[in-house]
Amino acid sequence: MDRRSFIKTTGATLAGTAAPLFPIAAMAADEIVVGSILDLSGGLDIYGKPMADCMTLAVEEQNAAGGLLGKKIKLASYDPQSNMQLYAQFAQQSALKDKSAVVMGGITSASREVIRPVLDRGKTLYFYNTQYEGGVCDRNTFCTGVTPAQTVGKLIPYAMKKWGKKVYVIAADYNYGQITSQWVKKFVQDNGGSVASIDFFPLDVTNFGPTISKIEAAKPDMIVSALVGGAHISFYRQWAAAGLTQKIPLASTTFAGGNEHIVLSPAETNGFLVSYNYFQNLDTPENKAFKERFYKRFGKDYPNITELAMGTYQGFKLWAEGVKKAGSLDRIKMIDALESGVSIEGPSGKVTIDGPTHHCVLNVSIAEVKDKELKIVETFKQQEPTDTSAVCNLKKNPRDNQQYVIKAS
Question: What is the pTM of this model?
């Protein structure tokens, strides 16, 4: 994979615009520290760099509007380099040394499950702003990204109606891929289909030749991909090189989250289907105004604004609304305020925190990749996190603190 060309075209302005990557000694009396732990290098930087840019913009906008509670926001940014040990180290520094009012970060579920207990012990509020497999139930944690019931539950029926009922699943080999693949299987079967196989791959795998041969032999009507990270871009290149892009169609729960559709050529990706909360061509006044501000800040040649970047921006905005409503940075008062159903009208539409689950009610769209753009084909308004709400109710059980593996059946 030519990651240099990707880094050149996505987040190129980061070095000059993101918060400095060093810890600050302590929270000054006239500032509020917000911690950010996002991968700016390592195998997940294709996601982390746009997320960091949106975090920078959100903080700058808040400060331009007068800050919060009469104080300016200070962004304390760390690069964990996709290293689990560094996630834990930086979470501890952010909580104990920086005295952050909130920490926003983590990309993979594995990184979240390293950060989350550290911040629980440090009594520091945590926002996890990316799509994931659902099931986190922790009063100290707010998960603002989409879950499978919101996206996979819409994508699979749409793709099956378009392409057929025999599905082959490929997924990243950690809890996101493992659990999401079971949701794919559920929705396939619910819609009268069958799953030919589910194959898992570690995040550093780049050779997919044997798997491509297996897929050809299985003759599915479609593939569903839950691959993750820079190394897994190799699958799409090898799939196209084998002449299969136009023969067996592909839907994905993760594709384009790292702007893969810009790195790859149209011949390699045209026709892929994806489902997310945010696409940058959403035709709303809020999104148009956001894009004007974003491109003014980071340059007109900035590539596509990703789902995960928008999740970071909207996560910060939800937290800021919670601060305003609480009128305080006290953690419990903040949690109470957020649980009351804080809502924003963001670039993706209305986003509301669901009090019992600490997840979000939001809009979801399906889009088709066409010539390096994501063309929206259908939108579903105000989707609830019904997967997580089936197992988590923090208003009834505020001491619950775990990630449930939701049985997709």
Answer: 0.89
